[in-house]
Design goal:
single chain; nine-stranded mixed β-sheet; globular; disordered N terminus
């Protein structure tokens, strides 16, 4: 933890009085910390913000420097930038002239005041030999719902190449059944830190609230990030789950242009061209990189010959934004979530990529996912993990493109890393839930592992075999309709990739909703234990209903790690008890996908399928990578 940084107040505890009622984390003008993002082989975005109330007016030029040592003695790049009111006094620099696959340190200064020092890392040069890449992933980081120990644990890691945030980076309003903490106390829901935003200034303040948490700041200090948005980052309409007396939607002036503008101002995101090509706007002179169109965010990063990362926008195509999405590529009446331009950018990029792995940073669960209506007589909450179900034509088109059904070559080793599910999921990627296509998975059972939260035993439902047993059990495997590309000896051969969802960084899963839905007096014993028991039944029902699903856990929260080599991808679920400050990391579960088929081992290793590591004789133990240079020094008291 930082020395000299004020920790956020816990629930219903008023914040300490100060001369400025504005969320902050650090003393001095750089009160919101620093961040870096969108690393390329020769450049990276670095970010900070000057708090104008803490410096003489007008705000002068900010000096920035990038060095190869944490003490900032060997500077390799430097310059100045003047913070401007129209960018909310944020400073963003596209630092150029860097070396590939190299750790750097950076810092900002204004007069005699310095920011904290950040650490970042460039990507390996596209196509260059790269043996190992480690990517952390998360979504749904609700300040109000969690003590955010996961950010602190992530900051302590010294072998992460990139952090991907999959959307709902900030939230517009708190959930009524997840009031864990508040900066100002939940007794006043009219306070702008406790309710939905009404203006552009309040959207910006929400980012400041997130950056008043030292763990959030420290996680950004230590690693470069790629961030895509989802609905809670963008939605301009006023909405609440906890009433704010005297405040309603008629008071809101927030627009979609406001929310997307604030996203670019407050995140280390490099803008893309307005032509929809997904190519970056590259700024070489140290000036502020202004988006040509703030509503475009899809883009890609290349990490040597090992992985290409595609960050997509599966949000603004929803009808409620009114952007008139082109669906002409689908040749039917169904709508498109991506739009033709983004769809063609994605599918052509996946086909053209020469990387060993293709990783799609995707906001919402893609694979078929039915949720039971009732479990053991208990009505199940509806959680929005199935957005892509409303765009089944486009989902099918993506799957068929990966399989080569549209006339192109088969695209192998595709990974979707997905947010918004509020639970830990793993799945093969198929386009249909019909049983007649010949796809079949192994038998469902429960994990032997424990979660981070007290009482979360046998955490999650998981397949107990790879599906080869289905051949002997008489499952419908063979040349059924739609299975022409399927190996008759491989009951999961229709899968075109794997999907990994590493829970949420705080926003609640099934258990919170189950507790909220429980009628008074209906639960015997502790409600928390009862909700976990019902969640276990729901997880098993989901696995039974969805033959493509390979793992489901819907209680614990945290982040995930994707550990990539040329031989395999290992997927780790790291959980923390979100109600406990300083909660340790718990490795809840591990899955694996193989880069090549190997039928000489038992069970066979199959590409584009995801399994529990134990099914292939691997121990459940943390992966690790090459240690980077040391973390930068902590701020002084």
């Amino acid at each position: 933890m930082f020395t000299g940084i004020t920790s956020p107040a816990s629930a219903d505890t008023p914040a300490p009085t100060s001369e400025i009622d504005y969320p902050t984390c650090l003393p001095g003008p750089f009160a919101h910390g620093i961040a870096s993002g969108d690393p390329l082989a020769d450049r990276v975005i670095i970010w900070t913000r000057v708090m104008p109330e803490r410096v003489p007016s007008p705000v002068g030029a900010v000096r920035w420097a990038v060095a190869v040592d944490p003490d900032m003695r060997t500077v390799v790049a430097s310059g100045v930038q003047v913070p401007r009111h129209e960018h909310d006094h944020t400073v963003k620099v596209d630092v150029t002239g860097l070396s590939p696959a190299t750790t750097y340190y950076y810092r900002f200064a204004l007069g005699t005041e310095h920011s904290i020092t950040g650490r970042t890392r460039t990507a390996p040069a596209p196509g260059s030999p790269t043996t190992h890449v480690r990517i952390a992933a998360m979504s749904c980081s609700s300040y109000w719902s969690s003590m955010w120990s996961g950010f602190d644990n992530l900051a302590d890691r010294n072998d992460i190449d990139l952090v991907i945030h999959l959307g709902d980076y900030i939230y517009d309003f708190p959930d009524a059944d997840e009031l864990v903490r508040s900066r100002v106390g939940f007794h006043d829901m009219t306070h702008p830190d406790n309710r939905d935003w009404l203006t552009l200034d309040e959207v910006r303040r929400r980012y400041a609230l997130w950056r008043s948490d030292p763990q959030f700041v420290r996680a950004h200090q230590q690693h470069p990030w790629l961030i895509v948005w989802d609905n809670h980052d963008l939605d301009p309409e006023y909405g609440v789950e906890v009433q704010a007396p005297g405040i309603d939607e008629s008071m809101s002036t927030t627009t979609l242009a406001d929310t997307s503008r604030a996203f670019y101002e407050w995140t280390p995101t490099r803008p893309v061209r307005a032509d929809g090509s997904g190519e970056f706007v590259l700024v070489d002179d140290g000036s502020y990189p202004v988006p040509e169109d703030s509503l475009l965010v899809y883009r890609r990063l290349r990490y040597g010959d090992l992985v290409e990362v595609f960050g997509i926008d599966a949000q603004t195509g929803l009808e409620r934004y009114g952007l008139g999405v082109d669906s002409s590529h689908l040749h039917g009446a169904e709508p498109s979530l991506l739009g033709r331009q983004q769809f063609e950018w994605l599918t052509s990029g996946l086909s053209a990529s020469t990387a060993r792995w293709r990783l799609i940073a995707n906001q919402a669960w893609f694979s078929p996912a039915d949720i039971p209506t009732v479990v053991e007589g208990f009505p199940m909450p509806r959680i929005g993990i199935g957005r892509w179900a409303a765009f089944s034509d486009e989902r099918t088109a993506i799957v068929r493109h990966l399989r080569g059904d549209d006339g192109g070559p088969r695209v192998r080793n595709t990974i979707m890393v997905t947010g918004d599910a509020h639970g830990s999921f793993a799945s093969d990627i198929i386009e249909t839930s019909h049983l007649a296509d010949g796809y079949a998975s192994g038998a469902p059972g429960f994990s032997s592992g424990h979660g981070a939260e007290r009482g979360n035993h046998h955490a999650g439902a998981v397949r107990t075999d790879t599906g080869t047993g289905a051949l002997m059990a008489g499952s419908p495997v063979g040349p059924a309709a739609g299975s022409a590309n399927m190996d008759p000896a491989d009951p999961r051969g229709l899968s075109v990739g794997v999907e990994f969802s590493p829970s949420s960084m705080g926003r609640g899963g099934a258990d919170e909703m189950i507790i909220a839905a429980m009628p008074t007096g209906s639960v015997t014993g502790d409600a928390r234990y009862e909700s976990i028991r019902i969640s276990r039944a729901a997880e098993m029902a989901i696995l039974s209903l969805n033959r493509n699903a390979q793992f489901v856990e819907w209680v614990d929260h945290g982040y995930g790690i994707v550990d990539l080599t040329h031989q395999r991808a290992v997927f780790e679920y790291w959980w923390q008890d979100k109600h406990v400050p300083g909660a340790p990391d718990v490795l809840g579960h591990q899955m694996v996908a193989w880069a090549d088929d190997d039928t000489t081992v038992s069970p066979p290793r199959r590409r584009d399928q995801i399994d529990a590591v134990g099914l292939h004789g691997l121990p459940v133990e943390p992966t690790s990578g090459a240690q980077q240079l040391p973390a930068p020094p902590l701020p002084r008291s």
